[in-house]
Write a structure and sequence with these properties.
The complex is a heterodimer of chains A (465) and B (145).
Chain A lengths: L1 E2 L4 E6 L3 H12 L4 E4 L14 H8 L6 E2 L6 E2 L8 H4 L9 H11 L6 H14 L3 E2 L7 H13 L3 E3 L1 E2 L31 H6 L3 E4 L2 E8 L4 E7 L4 E11 L2 H11 L9 E4 L3 E7 L14 E3 L2 H5 L2 E5 L4 H7 L5 H7 L5 E8 L5 E5 L5 E4 L4 H19 L5 E4 L4 E2 L3 E3 L23 E3 L14 H18 L1
Helix pairs in contact in A: 1-13, 5-13, 6-12
Chain B lengths: L23 H14 L19 H4 L4 H16 L2 H14 L8 H19 L7 H6 L9
The chains are: A alpha/beta (465), B mainly alpha (145).
The complex binds flavin-adenine dinucleotide.
Flavin-adenine dinucleotide binds next to α1, α3, β10, α8 and α13 of chain A.
């Protein structure tokens, strides 16, 4: 049994986006922090160099998890750095529409652009971000931009948390979905987590927290290392930053009773739609994502489009069929373009946990969500058809990778889990500020807002220590 | 990260999960399944050339135990049934996966499990010369200078 001897002020479960930012802010202020992470610690020198390993080592369940109908594949990161290791690092501040919806639903006053601006600015200071340079856009971006023009749609270049991708050396950012081997992507282990670890923060990787006991002056958690060894750690205060599914699992396993825990789960379901061209597209090259839709009509209609692509295993999984025909399309890999539609889902899902501790997730699209998907899909067909696509091939596996909700924030304890000070209604000694507190789906890339709210939460935690 | 501070643990490498027992029958079933999903007969090399038996652990050891258990049972079944039966199952899986709601869920899971196993071991391309990636034109790289 491994036991912590050190006397920690704050213990954080989950070294992902939120856990890293909370840990950084507190460590900077001299608070002694311990971060426990179920995933492993990887860095530029040992990131996987094949798709099998990036899937199995960086995601829960060895790659994909599913909703109960297996109609949405869920990608849930598992690593020191969490989603910031595997994500595309696209940064967006929320618009007034997203925050107004949150304010109405939760009653929390600071859900406004003005009130959050200060926190977004703090985040900006910690990360280098750049507009994807036009010079290194690939054929897939050209299809996207041209198709938008042809159809009178409006798009905008993406902003990505990256320092220097050295495209001129021939680097292709698609490889960084398995961790950025040149430390350009601003994953937390090379930004805030690194700074915190140089100060007052310790990280324990490969440790899956399975139970917690929270009292006024001490919190104890127990769990299991990947190698089967048991462990126990304690601190004065506890922060849960294990993500929407992780927090729900831990709270339910530890006997928390609020029936709202696990409800209000959203994923921005994404459908990747491919198209085959006679010409080479080379969607895997350079800055493989460059544009997003920036169209008021799309926003009103509840979807967004981005040009996107994936490495061979993922593309093979998206293509229908098997056998010779499937192989023939794979041989045309460089002639494929791809656009994703992500919908702002309105039908909340529910996360339950079975006896083996595995998440069981009910999540489906309602009529409105399906209409949103249909409109987004139509726009993609228009783009492909107006740019000379030979045929359009809808991907067969919708994906959820913005996993949000389950511990929604709100003033009313009858329909929320944490209060405006990021404390659980059921036990104010537990703080939560990650993607699980989202009151609904914003329809916008979430990570920058998770970072901003985590900084705000850390400010509050500091006052309450 | 240089002088990182991790308590109690050596951090030289990630901890590996326990190794799954994969027997001859499982491998036989996997080869038969692959012959249906990736029959070769094209400019792509055949599945056995990637030596999948050497790479399967890096995948299935990381799965949830019940998912892994189900795949191993299926592979054992594939080892003993005739090839046309596997073809039939795959056609059923592809068709059933299109059904909405609960009725299609088993087929969608099977689709991901079976195609996922074969495509992962194949298109991850464990060949030294990267001949599979070469054949499909996947040339993405990160250059160290
Ligand atoms: C492929 C991909 C691309 C994406 N691209 C973008 C993008 O471009 N822009 C954007 O804004 N968002 C993107 N996202 C989403 C974004 O990464 C997530 O929204 C974000 O990481 C969520 O932050 P979090 O702190 O809530 O959780 P995470 O970052 O997921 O961190 C949670 C951590 O907690 C750990 N954990 C869970 N349970 C336990 C436990 N019991 N014990 C110990 N540790 C535990 C997990 O292993 C994980 O590391 C992407 C996601 C994926 C998968």
């Amino acid at each position: 049994m491994t036991k912590s001897e050190a006397n920690y002020d704050v213990m954080i479960v989950g070294a992902g986006v939120s856990g890293s930012f909370i840990g950084w802010y507190l460590a900077e202020k001299g608070v002694k922090c311990l971060v426990l992470e179920a995933g492993s610690y990887f860095h530029a020198g040992n990131y996987p160099t094949n798709e099998r390993d990036s899937n199995s080592k960086f995601y829960w369940g060895g790659g994909l998890e599913f909703n109960t109908h297996a109609s949405i594949g869920l990608l849930r990161p598992k690593a020191v750095g969490g989603g910031s290791i595997v994500n595309q690092a696209l940064l967006d501040r929320f618009d007034a529409d997203a925050l107004d919806s949150w304010k109405n639903r939760s009653g929390v006053e600071y859900f406004s652009q003005k009130a959050l601006e200060k926190y977004y600015d703090i985040v900006d200071e910690q990360l280098v971000s750049q507009e994807i340079p036009a010079k290194y856009r690939n054929g897939n971006a050209e299809v996207f931009e041209q198709g938008f023009k042809n159809n009178g749609y409006i798009c905008a270049p993406l902003i990505r948390a990256q320092k220097d991708c050295k495209y001129e050396d021939g680097n292709d950012c698609i490889e960084c979905l398995g961790g950025c081997r040149i430390d350009s992507k601003q994953s937390t282990p090379v930004t805030v987590l690194k700074k915190a670890m140089d100060k007052n923060l310790d990280v324990v990787p490969d440790f899956d927290v399975t139970d917690m006991q929270v009292e006024d002056s001490t919190t104890r958690v127990s769990g299991t290392f990947t190698n089967g060894q048991k462990g126990e750690f304690s601190a004065r205060k506890l922060v849960l930053a294990a993500g929407a599914i992780g927090n729900t699992r831990l709270l339910k396993q530890s006997g928390f009773r609020n029936p709202i825990i696990g409800s209000g789960f959203y994923t921005h379901p994404q459908h990747m739609i491919l198209a085959e061209y006679d010409r080479e597209i080379n969607a895997q090259k350079g800055a493989f994502q460059a544009f997003k839709s920036n169209d008021e009509n799309f926003r009103r209609d509840g979807f967004k489009l981005e040009n996107v692509f994936a490495a061979p295993v993922a593309i093979a999984m998206l293509l229908p069929g098997f056998g010779k025909k499937h192989q023939e399309i794979m041989e045309r890999y460089i002639n494929l373009a791809c656009i994703e539609v992500a919908i702002r889902d309105t039908n909340p899902g529910r996360i339950k946990i079975n006896k083996a501790g595995k998440p069981v997730i009910s999540k489906s699209l309602n009529k409105l969500d399906k209409t949103r998907l249909k409109k987004g899909t139509e726009a993609i067909y228009n783009i492909f058809n107006s740019t000379g696509a030979k045929r359009v091939i809808p991907g067969i596996l919708p994906i959820g990778l913005h996993l949000m909700g389950g511990c929604a924030m709100g003033l009313d304890e009858r329909n929320s889990v944490v209060n405006a000070d990021f404390q659980m209604h059921e036990n104010p000694n537990v703080f939560i500020a990650d993607s699980s507190i989202f009151p609904d789906a914003p329809g916008i890339n979430p990570s920058m807002t998770i970072m901003a709210l985590s900084v705000k939460a850390a400010e509050t935690i500091l006052q309450k220590l | 990260m240089g002088k990182t501070k991790y308590i109690q643990l050596p951090i030289s490498g990630a901890q590996e999960p326990a190794k799954t027992k994969v027997g001859e029958m499982h491998l036989k079933g996997m080869y038969k399944l692959a012959a249906v999903i990736l029959p070769g007969e094209s400019k792509l090399i055949d599945f056995p050339s990637v030596k999948p038996e050497e790479h399967i652990h890096g995948m299935i050891d990381y799965m949830y135990p019940d998912d892994r258990g189900a795949i191993l049972v299926l592979l054992k079944i594939f080892a003993i049934v005739p090839k046309f039966f596997i073809v039939f199952i795959m056609h059923m899986v592809e068709a059933g996966a299109k059904w909405n709601g609960a009725s299609g869920s088993v087929f969608r899971m099977l689709q991901v499990a079976l195609k996922g196993l074969i495509f992962t071991l194949y298109y991850s391309d464990f060949t030294e010369e990267k001949v599979i990636h070469g054949a499909i034109g996947y040339d993405a790289k990160i250059v160290w200078k």
